[in-house]
Amino acid sequence: MSAFIRFLIAFFLLLMVIAVGTAGYTLIEHWPVSDSLYMTFITVTTVGFGEVHPLSEQGRHFTIILIVFSIATVGYSVTILFTYIFEGIILKAMREYRMKRSIKRMKDHYIICGCGDVGREVALEFKRTRVRFLIIDREPEKSELARDESILFVKGDAVDDEVLLEANIEQAKGLVSALPEDEANLFVVLTARQLNPRLTIVSQAEEQRTIRKLLKAGANRVISPSQIAGRRLASIILRPSVVNFLDVMVDGPSDSMRMEEVAVETGSPLVNKNLREAGIGRHTGAVIVGINGPDGKTKVNPSASSNLSTVPIRENDVLIAMGNEAQIQHLRNFVKHGR
């Protein structure tokens, strides 16, 4: 039972005691309602002002019963009231303190600016893939994600430098600007790029004319939700089997085949080996379908005389792999440790 429900129960119990006391004195002593109500209040609150009128024997018996019930009811109501008020305040303060402390310790995390429809979907995907992230929003309490205590929020305007610094942007790995206004996204991208030149920035854009401005401001990629939605609708109509296959690869359950990317970091034992020499498929069961280089170019089939298996793996390459969750995890360990 929630604290609010307990508060309502206590409130109605208190009203019931007052109503019963007033009705009892009115019926037993034949007093006016105002005198009965006054007598009930001084009895329930135990202030000891004395009787309004002399009580009959039945009235004294009724007063004894009323005092017993009122002490229990008032005691319960006061306890619930203080619990409802102070527990909410203390819990809120404690949660904010834990949130700020967790944010200060975050490194290589992702920042989502805006918790609208697009930002919410980004957050849910981040949570599903178990990456560290936080959300900046002006009114986080209005978001349905605010009920999830595992999600960190920074309350404020992402356009402000202080808010981005509070989100520990200098230690962040990436930022998604999902604000509804293109002008706000432009300011966020400009500010974020200045505060962290190494940051990977992805922004949404409502208008096509804003895309080029966002790229010049420092965004690595700019996404138009309406354009993507339109293309996907057309693809579902024209190529439903391909779309279904890609959905399974990207969003399928953990025991199904899916596509993931695995970074080749400095010191990996696979550096300067090609896929055939590394034996990735033999050791992990995962299938490498592409290699994305540091320049952003993806190698799939370099030429007619060679194939992907002969392409050497370089530092900071990203392997685009296909496999189930166990195979992908085995691949991550294999790329990092060679076993």
Brief synopsis:
This protein has 339 residues and is an alpha/beta fold. The chain has helices at residues 3-29, 33-44, 57-105, 117-128, 161-166, 182-195, 208-217, 225-238, 240-251, 275-278, 280-284, 325-337; strands at 110-113, 133-137, 152-155, 174-177, 200-204, 221-223, 258-263, 287-292, 298-299, 318-323. The chain is 53% helix and 13% strand.
Defining traits:
single chain; 339 residues; alpha/beta; Helix Hairpins; Rossmann fold; Alpha-Beta Plaits; 3 domains; six-stranded parallel sheet; four-stranded antiparallel sheet; 53% helix
Give your account of this protein's structure.
53% of the residues lie in helices and 13% in strands. Strand 4 (174-177), helix 6 and strand 5 form a beta-alpha-beta unit. It folds into three domains: 3-101, Helix Hairpins; 106-229, 3-Layer(aba) Sandwich (Rossmann fold), CATH 3.40.50.720; 255-337, 2-Layer Sandwich (Alpha-Beta Plaits), CATH 3.30.70.1450. The protein has helices at residues 3-29, 33-44, 57-105, 117-128, 161-166, 182-195, 208-217, 225-238, 240-251, 275-278, 280-284, 325-337, and strands at 110-113, 133-137, 152-155, 174-177, 200-204, 221-223, 258-263, 287-292, 298-299, 318-323. The strands form two sheets. It has a six-stranded parallel beta sheet, with helices on both faces. Strands 7-10-8-9 form a four-stranded antiparallel beta sheet.
